[in-house]
Amino acid sequence: MSVIKVKAMVIAPNDAFTAHAVSLLPPTAENPGGYHRLIGGSVEFGETHREAVEREVREELGADLIDAVLLGTVENIFEINGETGHEIVFVYSGRLDPQPPADGAQLTEADGAVYPVVWRSFDDVSEQLPLFPDVVSLVHRLPRPGVDRGEQKQSTVAAYDSDVAGYSGGTRQLPEHVRRVAELFARDLGPDARVLEIGSASGRDAAFLESLGGRVDRTDITPGFVDALRAAGHDARVVDPLTDDLGHGYDGVWANAVLLHLNRPEMAVVLHRLRSAVRPGGRLYCSVKEGDGDGWSRHGNVVGARHFTFWREPHLREVLSAAGWKVESIETRPGSKLDETWLFVVATR
């Protein structure tokens, strides 16, 4: 009789936070090259899913699972040699102690079967074998225990600073939705509007806003982006919006995909500071990723790990209103690459 199985599995990063441990399973009719599977197994009657994942790691690898955090639940329906499987998987993150070596590691299943353990890169594009269950979106939201806020911020800036060319090349094309929002933003501000841009990066958005008649003050916390903008003939400033002088009297603030690197207390402070930088009636546009908590990601156009904070619409509205912004709209749209959603905000002082 077919049954739905309940599993508990773990995404276990290495110390360098570049890859996570998976088992390498043999070829099947559907995957002739084999496939990768998260480490873990079935939840037994009478145990919690957390107890199950800790037990499975201990039994299969002889390791302890440290700093286990429940990331979410995934429903996995799959075919294996013509048979349909159906699982509900509680997915954890955590650190293996000891960690499997880079070569020669193995795990032993409850039935005695032995399979290799390998390190799967966080850069899924470079991987030839599929991963089951499909947890790509969770892989790019991993917590990183033991890293304080200062290190989170420093590491995130350093990741962008070390890959300015890669990020600029990968984000050259303006997404259609951002183009539409920018056109409405420029129309509402009127001709010759002064715009403070937070997180100018390559300058793509600033160039488009200026093509619509605006005058953009380009800023970024990443020195490499500012250097590149200056080399291209633009005035640009290295600015930390949390602490540095932002100026005043702007008609609008444009902060596309940048405030998501602030934690929640910082977001409240920065929104207050941005409000002080614009005239009465001035506009704010910003975008953040939807979700709960925070995490690290190597997904996208930058090799290094960056820290993100995720937001739900009600809390985001609350923080904006508390900072003195009148929320005009918050639009939810899917991301272009991952199974993720974004919140696009337009607000007025």
UniProtKB/TrEMBL annotation:
PROSITE patterns: NUDIX (PS51462), NUDIX_BOX (PS00893). One of its GO terms (molecular function) is hydrolase activity. Gene3D superfamilies: Nucleoside Triphosphate Pyrophosphohydrolase (3.90.79.10), Vaccinia Virus protein VP39 (3.40.50.150). The keyword Transcription regulation does not apply. Keywords: Hydrolase. Residues 1-142 form the Nudix hydrolase domain. This is NUDIX domain-containing protein. It comes from Calidifontibacter indicus.
